[in-house]
Amino acid sequence: MALMTSARLGGVLFLILCIAYGVYAGDITLDYWSEQEMFNARSMPYLIAIAGIFCAILLIVIPTPKTDWSTALNLNWLPAGLLLVLMSAYGFLLEPLGFVIATILFLVTAFLVLGVQSVRAPLLVAATIAMGFWLLMDKLGIYLAPGVLPEQLFQYLGVAG
Questions:
Q1: Looking at the keywords, is ATP-binding present (predicted)?
Q2: What is the spatial distance between Cα 109 and Cα 139, in angstroms, rounded to a whole number?
């Protein structure tokens, strides 16, 4: 019998997590017209669960050498932690600021956290990506809310009624 290494234990825990994720993906409610579609709201969660189960089985089955944690401890973890905080802030700011403004702020700040020196290039890239994605979603008929603050500003200026 093979020894239970930390990688195998992690694989077992990851396998349990992915199976539970796949089971709960079945609870995602579907609109009447999308129930018979090949790709719907459950498709990506099912694919993620299947890929996770496959990776977990590989972790369990394939033998792993002893891990040298000294290299992982010497990495610069501050940007990774800041990006996690930034992603959480993006989720909270999405409703009040709207998709376009929140996405631009998120991307510009992420570029700066990752070490880009100037602000002009990240601002141009972020604005292009946010507006391009918003236009794509608009053409596909997917509504992205403009946000509470922009709507109030537009009403104040008399632009939107």
A1: no
A2: 28
